Amino acid sequence: DASDIEKGTYAHYMLKEMDEQPAVIRNIIQHYQNENGDIELTEGVRELVSEADRVYIVACGTSYNAGLVGKDILERIAGIPTEVHVSSEFGYNMPLLSERPLFVFLSQSGETADSRAVLVEVKKRGYKALTMTNVPGSTLSREANETMLLHAGPEIAVASTKAYTAQIAVLAILAYDIARATGKELPFDLMPELARVATIMDSIMAQKELFEDLAERYLKTTPNTFFIGRGLDASVCLEGALKVKEISYIQAEGYPGGELKHGSIALIEDGTPVIALISQPKTNLNIRGNVKEVVARGANACIISMQGVEHENDDFILPHVEPLLAPLINVLPVQLMAYYAALARGCDVDKPRNLAKSVTVE
Ligand code: G6P
């Protein structure tokens, strides 16, 4: 049938979509730069953000997790205070807002009912909204003042992968554009670094078997697992845990490494797999200390690090990218491990139980 053709030679949409990530990043670069290689956003988007004193990112699921990374990028690059909220909470329990809030709706589908309910409410109050979505003409796009497209191509697997990396890249582009407009100093050149990220993504996807091995070793039979990291890595850990829960039904928690000792470390037993993401120089020593703490309690630690903070015996060492963009790279191993864990456990990867691709009820 038609869906078989679209999937091509891939066993699952999820695998195909993970593989598409380097091409998606290149596509995004193409769409958001002019012939001089400078970032080019529409006047409408530029006007919206120039009026704002604070950004409120509103999203669900994987898009929410991408928003957490986006917050750090917006604050550090653009210097604009940014909050991230779960749509289903925000709609009914709106926090105190700044004077000139800008709402940014992150949604792969552009149809998520929880997010739409918030958009309806903020419009009623007279606020402006920007939607970042993969689907042109979707409800959240039509109803917002402006749209930035993700240019990721159709995402069919329930477990979202390429939309996550696309959202982070587009948020980074927005942050850089704000920074440029307000004369902020830029720590590195974004577009060439994104191009490098795409190349590195290719190299990671060319080594899938290694992550299949790690999934077999750490996740095949376990009832539970932890993903730990600090800073940006902690945000990626939330996404890693979500992926593992969604498709392999392993009870998984993403946790900031330093917070573990305040309760959750009680769950570490002999053989509990703990997957540590280590990419941030600032917190390298601390997170390695946290790994020692869990290993001392019997954990089976899998370390995925990055050049610059690597130790020789780490399970996988990713090529170096700017630490601020590390989530674009270190989410790939956790996506792949979740995928292969689900396969090893005999789960239906593309159609996990109880889940829908797009949730149109509140
Ligand atoms: C559903 C999907 C998730 C997705 C979330 C938000 O729960 O199963 O994968 O992250 O909705 O979807 P959106 O289209 O708004 O990004």
Helical residue percent? 40-55%
Segments where pLDDT lies below 50 for 5+ residues?
A: none
Rg result = 20 Å
What's the helix count? 14
The proportion of residues in beta strands is 15-25%
The hetero compounds bound to this protein are: 6-O-phosphono-alpha-D-glucopyranose
Q: How is the main sheet built?
A: 5 strands, parallel
Mean pLDDT equals 96
Structural class: alpha/beta
In angstroms, what separates the terminal alpha carbons? Answer: 33 Å
The SSE string, one letter per element, is HHHHEHEHEHEHEHHHEHEEHEEH
How would you write the strand order of the largest sheet? Answer: 2-1-3-4-5
Give the overall form.
globular
Number of strands: 10
Please, could you describe this protein's structure?
52% of the residues are buried. With 362 residues, the chain is of the alpha/beta class. The protein has helices spanning 2-7, 13-19, 21-31, 43-50, 61-78, 87-90, 113-124, 139-143, 162-181, 190-205, 208-219, 232-248, 284-296, 326-344, and strands spanning 54-59, 82-86, 101-107, 128-133, 146-149, 224-229, 251-256, 273-278, 300-306, 316-318. The chain contains 14 helices and ten strands. Helix 3 runs parallel beside helix 9 (162-181), helix 5 (61-78) runs antiparallel to helix 12 (232-248) and helix 12 (232-248) runs parallel beside helix 14 (326-344). The protein is globular. Strands 2-1-3-4-5 form a five-stranded parallel sheet, sandwiched between helices. A five-stranded parallel sheet has the order 7-6-8-9-10, sandwiched between helices. It starts with a helix and ends in an 18-residue tail after the last helix. Helix content is 46%, strand content 15%. The protein binds 6-O-phosphono-alpha-D-glucopyranose. 6-O-phosphono-alpha-D-glucopyranose (G6P) binds next to helix 5. It is an enzyme of class 2 (transferase). It comes from Exiguobacterium aestuarii.
